[in-house]
Design goal:
The protein folds into two domains: about 80 residues, Orthogonal Bundle (DNA polymerase, domain 1), CATH 1.10.150; about 180 residues, Intergrase catalytic core (hpI Integrase, Chain A, Orthogonal Bundle), CATH 1.10.443. A hairpin with a 5-residue loop joins strand 4 and strand 5. It has a three-stranded antiparallel sheet with strand order 3-4-5. A two-stranded antiparallel sheet has the order 1-2. The chain is elongated and about 75 Å long. By secondary structure, the protein is mainly alpha-helical.
């Protein structure tokens, strides 16, 4: 059984280009599954029945695993068996008829458009000295905030952006996402203007031999870190008087939600976010429905009579 696991993990890593962390998660879940099968005296693929899998799921529940962890285990098992059938290692799929549990998903924090505008307007002049010369770091900060909101990139993607990834003359950027998958994302005129100002007026003054081709630099000229980007965002959130708990991912959520509120196609948003599965993107349709309900409550004549 272990040899099939090795083949499957190689498939995930080499052919599907999943990240090392994702492959490790599959490995942990499936090693538990294979050990369980050994305890059940199952020695071949043909002996595995649906009852074995449901028994394992029941045991995981009794152990106190969260519903999300149990669903992840089942998803790994289903992918494993689907792969084995597709590659001809077995004819039967004992997990094929099992459905993943419907999970309640917590809606992400989103800033409305007015709050987002307030945040973007807060990047006013801040000067930090470098060898006695004032540095207009607000140009970098403004570019970062505009970039995040215009593209919806993850924070890990933002700090990895290089100047060669910018196609500003055609309004596009090249993003290297999870699993080293590349996608092309549009970037709006306001963000382009902020990035160009940063590139011309500040980055040359920050850059040194440690800068490489990284777009966003810290005040010492090195690549901006994830924590550095968090601190920049937190500073301007506080300035804007926003009381919600805002993270860089909040900007990503707001990007997607505002596009859908404006009538964007779900699959186009999926492509821009870099989601492999559209079900991941569909959570934003729930947010959009909440917005529509609020609009209805505010503006429908029968509802307005209650106010």
């Amino acid at each position: 059984m272990k040899k099939f696991l090795t083949v499957f993990l190689n498939h995930l890593s080499l052919e599907r280009s999943l990240s090392p962390n994702t492959v490790e998660s599959y490995k942990i879940d499936l090693k538990r599954y294979i050990k369980f099968l050994g305890d059940e005296k199952v020695s071949s693929l043909e002996e595995i029945k649906e009852d074995h899998i449901t028994k394992l799921i029941g045991q995981l529940s009794l152990l106190g695993l969260k519903a999300t962890s149990i669903a992840r285990n089942l998803a790994a098992i289903k992918s494993f068996h689907k792969f084995l059938v597709r590659e001809g290692y077995t004819e039967s799929d004992p997990a094929g008829a099992l459905e993943s549990p419907k999970l309640w998903r917590k809606l992400p924090v989103v800033l409305d458009q007015h709050a987002m505008e307030r945040l973007l307007d807060q990047s006013m002049e801040d000067a930090y000295s470098k060898k006695g010369k004032p540095l207009p770091l607000h140009l970098r900060d403004k570019a970062i905030l505009e970039f995040l909101y215009a593209t919806g990139v993850r924070i890990s993607e933002l700090i990895g952006i290089k100047r060669k990834n910018l196609l500003l003359e055609v309004g596009l950027i090249r993003v290297i996402g999870k699993g080293q998958k590349e996608r092309i994302v549009p970037i709006g005129e306001k963000a382009i203007k902020s990035v160009e100002e940063y590139l011309s007026d500040l980055r040359p003054r920050l850059a040194n031999q440690n800068s490489q081709d990284v777009l966003f630099l810290n005040r010492r000229g090195g690549p901006l870190s994830r924590m550095g980007a968090w601190k920049i965002l937190r500073k301007y959130v506080n300035r804007a008087g926003i009381k919600k708990k805002v993270s860089p991912h909040t900007i990503r959520h707001s990007f997607a939600t505002h596009l859908l509120e404006g009538g964007a196609d779900l699959r186009a948003v999926q492509e821009m976010l870099g989601h492999a599965d559209i079900s991941t993107t569909q959570i934003y349709t729930h947010l959009d429905r909440e917005y529509l309900k609020e609009v209805h409550k505010t503006f429908h004549p029968r509802e307005k009579m209650k106010i």
